[in-house]
Each structure stands twice: as structure tokens, then as C-alpha cells.
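Hi P.,

Sorry for the delay on this. The queue was packed all week, but I finally got your sequence through. Input first:
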Amino acid sequence: MAAPFKVALDYFSYYIGLAKDKKFRSLKNKYGAGNVILTYLALLEMIYGGKGYYLVYNEKTRESIIDTITDEYLNGKYRPASATVAEVIDGLVEYEFFDSYLYERAILTSKRIQQTYYVSTVKRKMVEIDPDKWLLSISEMKVLSLASRILSIFINDENNRVNDGNNGINDGINKQSKVNESKVNRKREGCSSAVLSLPEKNGNSFDISEEMYQGLVKTYANVNVMQSLEAMKAYYDANPQRRLNDYTAKINKWLTQDSVCGSSSVPAHPSSAVSFNLSEYENSSMFDD
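Then the structure:
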């Protein structure tokens, strides 16, 4: 029997200014700031401390969840009624603190919640994800980290679907098609997969091979190369007007900048949350001609 693996988180990141988020304004005016903020934080604790990235909120669990919030988080002289807490939760969905599509299917979660769970579990060897409850795309996960077990699950699933489709097509092909396919496969065998790709100005991709990546790791030993490259990709994804057709020199300049500034030190990845300060990169000397 396999040993159980950890699902919940021990802690989660709290971004400064959450309580002042403009989306809270209408709810705070109607139900009171304390009721709204504490209800939201209570739900986050239940999510991260339970299934990790979602909470089942249906007819069987709704009453228990609301009772927990009122008894353990909002108890006191001005304790709200259970109906008020239920309305606050509905309001949090309405103002997009939780995903409305999954809420209609009795699930409380959001992209922000899943991003936090994703980067917090990067070092875990075992993670289970229900695709029907997962909101992040493969491209969104790649920007956060390439080292996650969750990413591997979705990539493998996608590859399996492609292979299943190919098998169905191949059942009906003739001999000549098989010969052509064999030629293509032989060509592919000589190609190495890219560790990461940067978008080029001409619409193609600048692939960073495993060999190039390992060389960068040795050259910039005090820098978390993968995190720096992911930050670089995020920048050029968001700023197409700055894209290049050859990033070789720019990669070295970027990593040199990180080495000097210490902005992507090795211990920081992948255990801590990834946060790309793109404006800081854009204003740095690495973009000087």
C-alpha cells in the first residue's frame, strides 16, 4: 500500500493591500469590512489547508462551512447571521474572488488560488490534480515554473490524447504513408527538445536547448537560471515590440544583470512564489543599446 502524500499547504502568501482591494468596496459597504475580509480569509484557509486548491461548497457541506466561519472566525458580540455569511460568499463570487463557472458546479477556487498552490508544490514529487477543477493552462503554468509535477501531469495527458488521435488515423494509412512517417521520425530523432522557448520578432521561437541551458547554469552559478529565463520569457510575451530574432547576447546580458543585482538567486526557486517585476527589468541597464 502506497504511503499517503501531502495535499494541503502549511501557509500561503498574502498580498499587501488585499483588504483595500476595490472589488471589496461594495461588499464592505453592505456587510461590513470585518465580515467580508474575514470570511474571505477563512475560505482561503479552508481551501489551502484542505484540498489545497479548491473547496467543495454544495448542499452537504455549505452549512458546515458557514458554521465554521461564524463560530471560529466571526464569533463575538457582532457575530453575523449564517444567512449573511452565505450572502457574502455569493458576493465574493460575483466580484470574481472565486471562479463563477466552477462555483455553479459547487466548487470554490480561482486562478490566483491555483497559482499559489502551483508554485507552493513545485518541490513535491507527488501531486494529484482533478482536471475538471483546474483553471490554469499549460502556457500559464510554464510561466510560473517548468519544474512542477502538475505541469508534467497536464503535458503527459495532452501527449496521450495526441497519440490516441494519431493511432486512430494511422490505422487507415497505406504503406507509402508509413514510409513517409518513418522518414519524418528519423529526422526528429536528431532534434533535442527545448528547455524553454522565447518568442521571436519574426513569429518563430528561439529555443534554448538542454546543452545551452546547462552551459548557462555553469557560467552563472550564483543565479537561478531557470527563474531568470522564465522572467525573460514573461517580459517578451508581454512586450512584443521588444522581441528579437536572436537572443543569445540578450540572455547573457540578462543573466549578468541578475548576477550583479542578485534578483534571481539560486535558493529562491522553485520553493517560493514567483513574482516578475517587469517594469524593474525594463528600466534596468540590460535594455540599453
